[in-house]
Task: structure prediction
Amino acid sequence: MKGFLSLLILISILLPYYVVAQTSTASYLQKNRYDLHSDFQFEPGDFKLFGFAAYHGSQKTEEAEIILLKKLLSKKSIQYYLPEVDFSMGYYFNEYFKSGDTLLLKSLVEEYGYRAPQESSISVYKKWQAIKSLNDAFPEEDKLQVVGVDCIVSNKYPIKLILELTTESNEWPLRDSLLSLSLNPQTNYSSFSDSESKELLKKWVADYEQHIDNYSGFIQDTFILNHVIQDIKRSFGKLEREPTIYENYVKLMPKYDFKKRPQFVRMGMFHVLKKEEKTYPSFFTRLINNNIHQHTEIVTVLGFLTKSTVLWNAKYDKNGKYRSYSIKRGYGIGDYWLEYFRGIKYLKKSKLSDLTLYKLTAENSPYFQKGNSDLVEVKGFFRRSTHEQYLQKSTTDFFDWALLISNSKANIPIEAMKP
Result:
């Protein structure tokens, strides 16, 4: 009986604090929310890097990204666009911007699927078309340029870029072999398996490095070619993605003047976090920890799905022909009783529209409080609590803005797109 009375006393003491905390969060969010569809003045402050991320595979995420890009481009706040692609794919996205070649765009989106199958979709294809339309409205000096800093997952565009950066010569037979390989529609371009493209690239790289003086007269841009070769060489062994992204970014920084020319980064959620959750640092965290950019020079917006579905995988018949696709509406969106973001309920209760943006860094924000892991900690019915690792951290250590994405349909695979 004494134990029960003690429990009641403890609850009576803690309950008012719990109610106050809930009221404080709800009141704060109501004062710092924006309908992303509206013409409000988006003021993220001065930044060197702007990151946007959400769970993969839902259509309105791409819609939200275009709105954010449009608002930032209208103020000339960004000059580079860094998606989850390697340097060679980034190069050819720029070629699409110049040519408008939709066959090239479709191929790029298909290859994108080697890394994130949920992004190899019609929605992503249309997003790139929308980015091109935005870009076309600006003079040449203000156009957005794509730079890829991710690791290679497909050898198709690295091979294509090697061929573009070098000239044909009878003294370079392995270059001819690469050309023949690129003309074969059945070529396997996987960088993960021991594909024919991977094996030929190993031979080509070894030959190039051994006879570099013989080939120097056939190279148009040595810096870019050498960068692509380093990307390719990394793909031959065991690859750590975060160090690769970080190292590529730092290596390309002088060429693109990343210190002075702001960038928009669209990657997965982990990559754009500004602090370690445990001990392994993300791309953004590595930049901060190594004093490449300061914490205050990076702005991150994370998207949170609710009442939505995501593309899970495409389905093929035994001959490899596209048949259909599957979706998820529980696991995979981060708002499900078995897996959900702590504190997402506050966003849901105060939303203005299907795309509601919340500033978490305004004055008196509860998201500054140490031990507040709202929107960072993932909870669930059968999950062990990880709250202990956030006791000395706050939500705003990790990111600055939250975007609630509601009633979003799943992406549809690019294979379903009619010619």
Q: What stands out?
A: The first strand starts at residue 33 and ends at 35. The chain has one domain: 26-151+239-416.
